[in-house]
Amino acid sequence: NRDNRTLERIVKQIPFKNVGEIHKNWTATGVSASRTTTHRRIQDMGFSCRISCVKPFLNNRQRQKCLAWTKDKKNWTAAEWSKIMISDESKFCISFGNQGPRVWRKRGEAQNPRFLRSSVKFPQSVMVWGAMSSAGVGPLCFLRSKVNVAVYQEVLEHFMLPAADQLYGDADFVFQQDLAPAHSAKATSTWFKDHGIPILNWPANSPDLNPIENLSEVPAMWMFQGVPSRKKIRITIVSV
């Protein structure tokens, strides 16, 4: 029992180590066991070796703002949320390889900060803008350059406005976007004011609050929903 407690303490202290490293640390305490026995004991304790979840880093101020935002919106009705047109740019990795370090954790610990890994920027990828609402989804925009103010306004003009007409018609709506530099720029704010489109206030660095993140996990649903095959490329790709 003492040896088991020692092993469990080692796994909890260094959850990102592989079995070989954990085995080395355990046997260094005087335990006589094979690597296979070490692996089996770890699994018997309820640990599984998983790909670590990735979550943006939030400082205390950002955490407080996210909490205040969620408390403010927690009593919103379905009718109020139905007026929100939710948008985002999503980066889809097109190079499949290293998925990052694995981590030893127990069931229900996937979002524990101790078992999260930092995001790795700039893998080979494609950037796609999309929007959704309770009425459905709008067309996709494949971006071939960095999203600066000029590019973003082109997306708003040629994709967001048609999407709004498609989803809301003449009804009022509120547009949601995150606080990316191109989104929060003064010129972009002026564009929305000139078009009479209200913006939903949004806390910084909070993709986990955005329901479109769930939809971006299944991009094929955006690609093929109600789009005739001969028109897919024409309506969804823009060279900006």
From TrEMBL:
Pfam families registered for this protein in UniProt: DDE_3, HTH_Tnp_Tc3_2
User: From which residue to which does any coiled coil extend?
Assistant: none
Describe the location of the Tc1-like transposase DDE domain by residue ranges. Answer: 84-225
Q: Which InterPro entries match?
A: RNaseH_sf (IPR036397), Tc1-like_DDE_dom (IPR038717), Transposase_5 (IPR052338), Transposase_Tc1-like (IPR002492)
- The segment(s) forming the Transposase Tc1-like domain are 5-72
Chain segments annotated as transmembrane: none
Q: This chain belongs to which protein, by name?
A: Transposase
The scientific name of the source species is Cirrhinus molitorella
